[in-house]
């Protein structure tokens, strides 16, 4: 099994960015947690972070054919990007949406995700653990198909 984890804008700043909301764990540390979980389960992981919407779309197009599914934290693009949604629909692989914060407990503009209705599921509000829960959920989904 091969899974891609896609991270959107400003997630490269985790650790120093609004730690009261996003915690103090860096994106590199989250990557290590997920990679460790992947080794234990015999899964390959491809890890990406970009601050650009176009680069996010290109990444989905380029790796879509070689992965079995996606974990997507599109960050602010979650709430706006039809381009990312269309790219995910185009490649047609299962995705789990993940967020560190609980987007439904935040400002009105963050309570809507344009990706949620095409996701297998959404994990939101568990800090870095959201990535591990998303990983387990996606793997279970892929294995039970
Ligand atoms: C986020 C939530 C988004 O609303 C925000 O724009 C982010 C991070 C999260 O992981 O909690 O950048 O996706």
Throw out a few tags for this protein:
145 residues; alpha/beta; five-stranded parallel sheet; globular; binds 1,3,4-trihydroxy-5-OXO-cyclohexanecarboxylic acid
Helix proportion: 25-40%
Radius of gyration: 14 Å
Parts with pLDDT < 50 across at least 5 consecutive residues: none
Distance between the termini: 13 Å
What ligands can be seen in this structure? Answer: 1,3,4-trihydroxy-5-OXO-cyclohexanecarboxylic acid
- SSE order in H/E notation? EHHEHEHEEH
DSSP helical segment count: 5
Mean pLDDT: 98
Q: Proportion of β residues?
A: 15-25%
- Sheet with most strands: 5 strands, parallel
Number of strands: 5
Order of strands side by side in the largest beta sheet? 2-1-3-4-5
Structural class by sheet pairing and helices: alpha/beta
Write the layout of secondary structure elements.
Layout: E1 2-7, H1 19-22, H2 27-41, E2 44-49, H3 53-63, E3 69-73, H4 82-91, E4 95-99, E5 121-124, H5 129-143
Parallel strand pairs: 1-2, 1-3, 3-4, 4-5
This protein binds 1,3,4-trihydroxy-5-OXO-cyclohexanecarboxylic acid.
Q: Can you describe what's shown?
A:
The mean pLDDT is about 100. A 5-stranded parallel beta sheet has the order 2-1-3-4-5, with helices on both faces. Strand 3, helix 4 and strand 4 form a beta-alpha-beta unit. The relative contact order is 0.20. Helix 2 (about 25-40) packs parallel to helix 5 and helix 3 runs parallel beside helix 4. With about 140 residues, it is of the alpha/beta class. It is built from 5 helices and 5 strands, in the order E-H-H-E-H-E-H-E-E-H. Bound molecules: 1,3,4-trihydroxy-5-OXO-cyclohexanecarboxylic acid (DQA).
